[in-house]
Write a structure and sequence with these properties.
By secondary structure, the protein is an alpha/beta fold. It contains five helices and 14 strands. GO terms for molecular function: hydrolase activity.
Length: 240
């Protein structure tokens, strides 16, 4: 079922994901075969990925080779400027201040106090995901942090209603980096995509030129595995 209306989202709800890749055509081949996505070039210079006709993600070409090859999650906000001010006051940083993204909305790039990077999305013509919580679409984002107390305080205040409000059903969790990764791994937000079965999906990742970074492990929100695509961008596969 499509979920693409602004009213679907509370501030702090994950509403979009995008990948910064050096080779868009290679990205389209990889994710098209892995998730059954189709693609459409956008006036903004990005490529929109759709599942069964509904938007689920976007791919963008890296403009600077020094930038990471990475998936980034965007959290919904009705007021990006006000949220950026609150992020600064809470010890985070604004890397790129709110700016128009065509007529689709306004976006900003920010970090939490430990440096984990995420985006904000203030919708214009586009509210966010057309599909989520189903195979081939966004399912969860997990923050891996060195200081869970600081992270819980920061995000708990910033996105209180989405995480703890009445009827909240958050798609966002927090855990120590060392729970899954080597202790030296920097704090980061890991995007999860749903799959029906993990093993066939992991085999497809390998066949398409990616690799398994962390084999399947159980979590409170399902069984996950961390992989990289054929250009090195990390993400997780999730079976619930």
């Amino acid at each position: 079922m499509a979920e693409n209306r602004a009213s679907e989202y509370t501030e702090g709800t994950p509403c979009w994901v995008d990948a910064q890749l050096p080779d868009l055509e290679a990205g389209k081949r990889f994710y098209g075969e892995l998730f059954g996505w189709t693609f459409e070039d956008q006036p903004t210079g990005t490529v929109r990925a759709s599942k069964d006709g509904d938007p689920v993600a976007s791919l963008a070409r890296k403009t600077d080779g020094r930038l990471p090859t990475v998936w980034t999650v965007s959290f919904f906000t009705p007021d990006a400027d006000a949220l950026c001010a609150r992020i600064r006051a809470a010890g985070g940083q604004v890397v790129a201040p709110p700016a128009p993204f065509g007529d689709l909305g306004r976006t900003a790039l920010v970090t939490d106090p430990e440096g984990a990077v995420f985006s904000l999305w203030q919708p214009g013509a586009t509210a966010g995901f057309g599909r989520r919580h189903e195979p081939g679409a966004f399912a969860w984002v997990q923050l891996y942090t060195r200081d869970t107390d600081t992270a819980n305080a920061f995000y708990g205040d910033l996105f209180h209603d989405a995480l703890f409000g009445e009827g909240a059903d958050p798609d966002f969790g927090r855990a120590p980096v060392s729970e899954v990764f080597a202790p030296e791994m920097p704090p980061h937000l890991l995007v999860h995509f749903a799959v029906r079965e993990l093993e066939p999906a992991l085999e497809r990742v390998t066949r398409l030129g990616g690799r398994t970074q962390v084999p399947p492990f159980d979590t409170s929100y399902g069984t996950a595995a961390v992989v990289t695509d054929n250009q090195g961008a990390s993400f997780a596969l999730l079976r619930r």
